[in-house]
Amino acid sequence: MTDITPDQEQIRAYFIAERGYWRPWTQAILRHNPLFLKGYAAYAGYPARHGPLSTRMIELIYIALDSSATHLYPAGLRTHMDFARQCGVTAADVFDVLHIVAGQGLSHVYDAVRILAEESGVDAGHVMSEAQRSRVLRHFSEVPAFMEQIAQLDPGYLDVLLDFLEEGGSRLATSDAGLTPAERVLIEVALAACFTGFNETMLRIRIRSALQMNISQAELLQAIQLTAHLSIHGTALGANTFEEHIECQTKEHKHSDPA
């Protein structure tokens, strides 16, 4: 970089050490508000550096957050996909994450079905078959009321929903086993906790499942903390747009000057 002070250069080095990358938006913030960039590096770097989760797990969570339909941030996804591959994340791991992401929209179907059942007077009866109940328990570690309500309102939908959520033996034979159940539930906790797709119902269910699996409070807290600084992507958009605006103004000013 040119035209920066020694203090700004120190902040740049600190940011790279904390976050592992440097982008045009970080350069723009360094130029115009370096102390903010330093503060962000410390704030975002803390949950990535402190806590029991492995670097591999952290990158898997970032992949889920950036690829989520509630966010869709390609630049961050590419960055964390690269970091994840450096940590040994496999294709099966990545596509397990993307499978979880594809099911995220169901969280709001569950909430809407519950409301529909309540408002239309559907009794909370037990109509699931034992086979359906066993499948629901494998996915949720409990039988949520909304699954009973789906079974009453549309049992065929319950079956295809469970087919979709399960692996179904569709993965090609490989030594690459993909995510463990504990890793899956940590990603599900992060997606349910994130401000872009927050869902209290699913967050509570996933936390209960995690605790039953002996996942620690510290692991869950770290997964939750990692979701907050996703909002920096709005700052990145604003910083890049501001720089483009300044560049356009500069060009217009040069063209308007007499030769």
UniProtKB/TrEMBL annotation:
<feature type="domain" description="Carboxymuconolactone decarboxylase-like">
    <location>
        <begin position="34"/>
        <end position="104"/>
    </location>
</feature>
<dbReference type="GO" id="GO:0051920">
    <property type="term" value="F:peroxiredoxin activity"/>
</dbReference>
<protein>
    <submittedName>
        <fullName>Putative 4-carboxymuconolactone decarboxylase</fullName>
    </submittedName>
</protein>
<dbReference type="InterPro" id="IPR003779">
    <property type="entry name" value="CMD-like"/>
</dbReference>
<dbReference type="InterPro" id="IPR029032">
    <property type="entry name" value="AhpD-like"/>
</dbReference>
<dbReference type="Pfam" id="PF02627">
    <property type="entry name" value="CMD"/>
</dbReference>
